[in-house]
Amino acid sequence: MSTVAPTLAVREILDRALGGERLDEAGALALLTSRELVPIGRAADEIRRRKTDPERVTFIIDRNLNYTNICYTDCDFCAFYRRPGDTREGYVLPKSVIYKKIEETLAIGGTGLLMQGGHHPDLDIAYYEDLFTSIKARYKVHLHALSPSEVQHISRRSKLTIWETLSRLRDAGLDSIPGGGGEILVDRVRDIISPKKTKSAEWLDVMRHAQQLGMSTTATMMYGHVETVAERVEHMRLIRELQDETRGFRAFISWTFQDDGNRLGGLVPAETMPTSFDYLLTQAVSRIYFDNIDHIQSSWVTQGIKIGQVALGFGADDLGSVMIEENVVSAAGTTHRATAEEFARVIRALGKTPVQRDTLYREVKVWN
Predict the structure, then answer these.
(1) Paired strand residues for 355
(2) Which of 30, 243, 322, 365 is deepest in the core (most CB within 10 A)?
(3) What is the distance between the alpha carbons of residues 247 and 245, in angstroms, rounded to a whole number?
(4) CATH number at residue 347
């Protein structure tokens, strides 16, 4: 990075953070609104180097499988879902198709299945127990599945508590919970973009229960729509506080709102849409702020592989998944594809060693 000198206020905040002092919300807000990307990115990179092996960058080969697109929540930012009763484009994948997709994933060295879908009114816990047990009986694969909002839907549909629902899903083969549906954990925002989905406290409560049951989870943030910068900080505060309590989040992933093909796009002025600059700044601040989360993942799927590579110098230590299959972001007009070989090339170009990992960040293969 270049040697752009930070202003006194930013330098003082970064010096304190680099000295081991926890970044507070006022400091995070000051960094996000300062627009001083280079010094903030440099500090984030230094913290990343201290927290994870500075010579390695990790990634995973897995598949994002959307088992159904039927959903009744009508989220304004989603271009993927179809309403119940849509017999033309709505679907629930049969087991045979799911099995084939898993076999394709395992055949190229994949280790995990990220499985999410809609809030289907007809699918109760018996459906998921049957599906998960049948998958686990056939394949050695990590099931990273069901966002907190899906878990809440299953519990309501099945007339079970969250604890009972998660316990039964875990016993059926669910290994970990993705951070989908987090969006922004501020109810003012959620009431605008996803009023039928989980409230902030409910999302956090599902994660808390999962972590208390010994399940690892991830945390996410989807931003750049109707939230304020201060509300982005509030989102991060809530995640960090839960992490202080449970230590159950293994990674944080942020990405920018994609505005094509959904209703929310019409509410967000083009001039306020987040740029790659905004993305890198937000990711860098998240690395500094989350002193209790080990991994920060680059969102190359929304930013493209070039910015995804640049993000590895702004606090990220992981490129995420090669995304053998991806449907939700693509439905919103953003389609990026990559292979493990391409991941290895862009990582080596930075002078670092590419390391394939599994969902729990255990080494699978070093790509020499």
Answers:
(1) 58, 366
(2) 322
(3) 6
(4) 3.20.20.70
Distance CA 292, CA 238 (A): 13
2 falls within a domain:
no
H-helix or E-strand containing 144? Answer: strand 142-145
Which residue matches tokens 């925002």?
189
The runs of H, that is alpha helices, within the chain are: 8-18, 25-34, 37-51, 95-107, 125-138, 148-158, 162-172, 187-193, 200-212, 229-246, 276-289, 300-303, 305-310, 328-331, 340-348
Q: Residue 20 falls within a domain, yes or no? A: no
Six-digit token string for 314 = 């702004």
CB contact at 8 A, 77 and 222: yes
Domain range for 229:
25-366
pLDDT tens by residue, 303-317: 889 999 999 999 999
Band of residue 88 on the pLDDT scale cut at 50, 70, 90 = confident
pTM of the model: 0.91
**8 occurs within a structural domain:** no
